[in-house]
Amino acid sequence: MKGLFAVAWREIVERRMVLLAAALLGLLVFLVPLFPGAARYGASQARLFTAGFSAATFCAFVAFLLGGSTIGRDLTERRLGFYFSRPIAEGAIWGGKFLGIWVLVAASALALVLPVGLADFASWWPAAGAWRTAQIALLFAAAVLFALALGSVVGASLRERSVWTLADLAMLGLLALGLAAILFPLFQADAPALTTRVAGGLAVGISLSLLLASFAQVAVGRVDQRRGTRARFAVLWGVLVLVAVGCLGSVRWLVSPVPEDLTSASVRDITPRGNWIVLRGRARHRVDLTASFFYDVASGHFVRPPLRGNGGMVLSEDGSTGAWSESCALDGSRQCAIWVCRLEGHGSRPRRLPLEASISDLRLSQQGRRLAVAGPDTISVFDVSSGGLLAGTASESEQGKVLRFAFVSEDVLRLYRFGPRFGPPVEADSESSRAGTLAIEDLHVVERSVTRASRIEGLGWPFSVGFDDRHGRVVVWEKEGSVALFDASSGARIANLGQRSWDEVSRAFLFDGRLVLAETTGGAGRLQLFRQDGTLAQVFELGPAGFVQIGGEPQPGVLALSISRNPKEVWAAADSFLLDLRSGSLAKVAAHASPVAARLRWRLPYIEPGSAAARLFARPDGTLLLWDPKDSSLRVIPPLS
Amino acid sequence: MNEGPILAAEAITVRYGSTAACSDVTFSVARGSVYALLGRNGAGKSTLVRCLLGQQKPARGRGLLFGEDAWRRRARLMDRVGVVPEEPDAPPAMTPAQIADFCRRIYSTWNAGEFAKRLDRFGIPPRVPFGRLSKGQKGGVLLALALASAPDLLVLDDPTLGLDVVARRALYDELVGELADRGTTVLVTTHDLAGIEGIATRVAILKEGRLILDEEMETLKARFRRIRYGNQMTDTRTAYGTELDPFDAVRVKVRGWGVDAVVANYDDASFDRFQRTDGVVDAEASAMSLEEIFLSVAGEEKGAGS
Predict the structure, then answer these.
(1) In chain A, which residues have their Cβ closer than 8 Å to the Cβ of B156?
(2) Which of A441-450 are b and which e, b meaning 16 or more Cβ less than 10 Å from the residue's Cβ?
(3) Could you give phi then psi for residue B276, rounded to 5 degrees?
């Protein structure tokens, strides 16, 4: 150790002028408030910023410069022979030089910031505190070491001026490509925190390789410049290749989670029949990376779309096909590419459709042969096998803006236009602004034509709609509380279902076309079952309830409900129940859970009884539960970590 | 205490690309000896010294210091070695006093008084940065540094390079004093053959990376002689025939007055027989200086100038 400290001390003494320059600069910072324009930031802030900025730039520059002269110059000028002729170990020679300069630069930073830091102590310490100050100091110390190592290696390489310098430059180019290959998938996956961590790991790896290379040059080469250069090159690029390969492997692993890695999940789409769902959630060890899967709840098979900023993921009704949009922009801001994948069996290799469009929403037809794409201005239908455009229409017209669309057959896309505009009325008292319309149109894919199916007018704005694509009906209720059933084909009002409070009612169509309305009044829940013609068939008292949500039918004739005692917490405080529509019996099936279908009714054209869509329940913590009708048991889907 | 050689080269080979700086060099330096390693510029002396000091790893073979591998044990072994390098390599910003202070921290024995006295004897100011000293003064500082730790082995790599006569004399005086006082083993490479002749006890010559001679100074000087003679057996007086066959003639030149030969295996009996050879007249043998021997062995090719 005495050799280490002797060498370190010698470096400090030899380069002590740096410390003096920093101290002088630290005093000059006090003059900054006198500069024109500095006053508007406040004298204290101006001084602190200047001191911090000066310390960072001055020390980075000095560390890099001294790093370059420490090893590289000493080798080329044969000065290391002086140390190697003494009883000093190689590690002490190298370490002493690094330690000396590191201490010198750290002391310079202190000399630069300490006077201002003490003078303006009251203005920064309360905000920063000890922990944050320590963090900044540690980060700074590590950055100085990095600059020092970088300067040492760069200096040695440039002073070499041989074929090794060219080889270094060539490897540097390869390294840049490697770094891009490592970080780009994370960047595209829109996981800034994870990207930062990987980048931090890379920085540590690069720093380590620089330090090892610098050490190898001294320890292996000693005074033999050629041997030292060979050692530096081999260690630097050998370690960097290892780091890069390790990071590549890690990133490959990070962007390839499996459903079992999910720590919480939400269901983004679900087939109205079959077992496929779209899962999205955070995976373990992956910080803020969001993973998405097409997942078969029956078999556990899954297809993972690449995490290139994937946007909407949709399933065909029969679960045979999945599609998703992908970002074309570097930052993932614009979705424009579309991928499709056959999900039957174990899933096929995803295929990119030969088209590009601005995408805000997607729908697949029942059998997955057609894909409807909503953009900012148009809704287009593409042939999935060829990618060819089949038909399209404007997403906004005099009839209103298309807010929902669904295939009613392979060749017909039903469009629901909400008009005259979507959003709160401009003038609350104006009669015209309070009149809403729902126009239902059919886009005929083969004929490339749009026909108006119906138009429901005179709706109080705002209004909400429930859809029965299977039987061509809608249920509309207005803010004021009027609920009515309409024929989607003609726009004819089938039945008035009475007045209901907007905030206390939920509604759903059953698979057979019957309508269910659930409401809470006076702290008790009640469910009304209407026949297809809108006449009331049955009323079920649900007991104490703050809000009731309606799920699917896990079994024919059995309806899943979530009942929350607290009307303010519709999901978080809900328990799930099964209501037997024949006997009226109500049984709790899962505590702190609600049917997944209740959240996805807007998207789903219908929910087949017994399908996964009807049997899935979600907990607020992201746990998904699948109800098994055979033994009424629940199992976690997928097996969460 | 290990009674083996203080320093040894074991089949050291060093290559710079396709060029061999040293080829299979083997020798040893006995305790208390002054070993002069001679050779022309580029013969591989400095490379060999660096290998022996553990500063450079040979491609093959190894250097032994005090019986231990110099490359592996360099740091520990250097505590017993004083080194004066070919190029003064001390940090230029440091003064001799600061350098001495640095060395004081890392050597197990350090005689600050001796260092100061030597600087005084050499007339070197202790407070002037090393980089601003003259070449001779730098050499003096490094010699003082090398001796201040009372080393068992002193390695001098061409210490007189660029020194004037006075500085050279001072260096040798110091060296002789050290030898007289402590009996330090010395390895010296030099081009100053006249200067080292009176000090060296053993001589080795490197030529193009190969060790072509390694011998006690006394024996070397005894077996090398310059023989000058005339030859009346041949048609022309200056030609020579087979009369030199009994000798190992390393250089033969035909001059106007006769034949001038250097032989490497001289002895008086052989020379008596040579004098009695038919046709050999006016034969005389004279002793040679180290420089003359070096020139004969490493300077010219055999038979040149005939």
Answers:
(1) none
(2) bbbbbeeeeb
(3) -90, 5
How many residues does this entry show for chain A?
641
Q: Which residue in chain B has the smallest CA separation from A1?
A: B106
Contacts of A505 (CB under 8 A, 6+ apart): A477, A483, A517, A518, A519
CA distances from A636 to A260, A264, A597, A625, B295 (A): 11, 11, 17, 5, 95
> How big is the CA angle at A612 (ends A281 and A484), to the nearest 5 degrees?
100
Question: Are the beta carbons of A294 and A276 closer than 8 angstroms?
Answer: yes
So what's the pLDDT on residue B304? 39
d(CA A459, CA A478): 7
**Cβ-count burial A378-414 (b if 16+ within 10 Å, e if not):** ebbbbebeeeeebbbbebbeebbbbbbbbbbeebbbb
How many angstroms separate the CA atoms of B10 and B26, rounded? 5
Q: Residues B33-53: pLDDT tens digits? A: 999 999 988 889 989 999 999
Q: Whole-angstrom Cα distance, residue B179 to residue B81?
A: 14
Q: In angstroms, what separates the C-alpha of A73 from chain B's closest C-alpha?
A: 12
Residues contacting A37, CB < 8 A, separation 6+: none
Q: State ipTM.
A: 0.88
Listing DSSP states for B187-216 in one string gives EEE-S-HHHHHTT-SEEEEEETTEEEEEEE
Question: Could you tell me which residues come within 8 angstroms of residue A357 by beta carbon, excluding any fewer than 6 positions away?
Answer: A336, A338, A373, A375, A380
pLDDT in tens, A356-413: 777 888 899 999 999 999 888 899 999 988 888 899 999 888 888 888 999 989 999 9
| Nearest chain A Cα distance for residue B289, angstroms | 33
Inter-chain contact B74–A84, Cβ cutoff 8 Å? Answer: yes
pLDDT tens profile B196-245: 888 899 999 999 899 999 999 999 999 999 999 887 766 655 566 678 88
Nearest-CA distance B299 → chain A (Å) = 29
Give the CATH superfamily of A503-641: TolB, C-terminal domain (2.120.10.30)
Among chain A residues, CA nearest to B145: A86
List of residues 6+ apart from A602 with CB closer than 8 A: A404, A467
pTM of the model: 0.79
Rounded to an integer, what distance in angstroms lies between the CA atom of residue A370 and that of residue A382? 6
Tokens 């020390």 found at: A59
Report d(CA B134, CA A429) in Å as an integer.
Answer: 101
Torsion region of A508: left, alpha or beta (phi above 0 gives left; psi -120 to 50 gives alpha): beta
CB contact at 8 A, A288 and A222? no
Q: Do A82 and B89 touch (CB under 8 A)?
A: yes
**Domain coordinates in residue numbering, chain A:** 1-157, 161-255, 503-641
Q: Which helix (H) or strand (E) holds A182?
A: helix A163-188
SS3 content of chain A, % helix, strand, coil (to 5): 40, 30, 30
Q: Do A226 and B50 touch (CB under 8 A)?
A: no
